[in-house]
Amino acid sequence: MYRDVSSCNTYDYGDAVYWDARYLQEAGSFDWYQRYAALRPFVRKFISTSASVLMVGCGNAVMSEDMIKDGYEDIMNIDISSVAIDIMRRKYQFIPQLKYMQMDVKDMSFFPDEKFGAVVDKGTLDSLMCGTDAPISAAQMLGEVSRLLKPGGVYLLITYGDPKVRMPHLMRPSYNWKITLFIIPRPGFERPEGCSTPEKSYLEPAPLTDQGLLSPSFVMEDPDSHFIYVCQKMDDLNLNNAAPYPLNTNVL
Ligand SMILES: C[S@@+](CC[C@H](N)C(=O)[O-])C[C@H]1O[C@@H](n2cnc3c(N)ncnc32)[C@H](O)[C@@H]1O
């Protein structure tokens, strides 16, 4: 399996002590990679507003609050950092649709099987991939995510990891996930002036080979793009019948 160590720096992003110290120092909120406005088309397309949602590694991001403002009704937020959870629980004490619990994504045995219609992960698998025993941690986390998803439910992974480093972890047959990939530029990216290729629609899935790799002819406009993996838990009934929610102008 690939391990994307080149993208990790010297911090131990897999360590609760690191995150507790960071959240103690940094007041306010911070959303890694992308804000909800940019992710909304994908969230609204693949996750029903009535779904019970698990946000793994919520940190102090505003994403869950933005989802509630957008009509989502029930979001359970977990993080390994008790500091982050205390701050967020206090901040959102008057928003009953947002719940917070300190928990390790590698052991979510507190929740019964098939509890959630969707699991959202922005940067948390990435953190584990930068920690010790990364492949084992990833397998523990993803095994738990798979267990907690209802059949037909979706694991939405927003990451800097391209298919070469993420697909080997996501494509385990036991998860039985149908995986669709979207690629979006980082915030603030501008196409080079005079760029002759037609502008891409980021709402179109990226073409993948049978091995789950990007097709060699695919050109990524922003080399620092973010990847959105939509992993839908299939069962025998919906294997051939996986329809996402329609994209309409309301959502876009
Ligand atoms: C890169 S930050 C992303 C935070 C937030 N999701 C966002 O988009 O801004 C990763 C988060 O994962 C949390 N985390 C790291 N390892 C974890 C684990 N084993 N279990 C639960 N949360 C973890 C960290 O505390 C941190 O809040």
From TrEMBL:
Keyword ATP-binding found: no
Entry's Gene Ontology molecular function annotations: S-adenosylmethionine-dependent methyltransferase activity
Coiled-coil residues: none
Keyword Transferase annotated: yes
CDD domains named in the record: AdoMet_MTases
Organism superkingdom: Eukaryota
Residues annotated as domain Methyltransferase type: 54-156
A Gene Ontology biological process term: methylation
Pfam family, one: Methyltransf_11
Protein family per UniProt: Belongs to the methyltransferase superfamily.
Name this polypeptide is given: Methyltransferase-like protein 13
Gene name linked to the record: LOC111497867
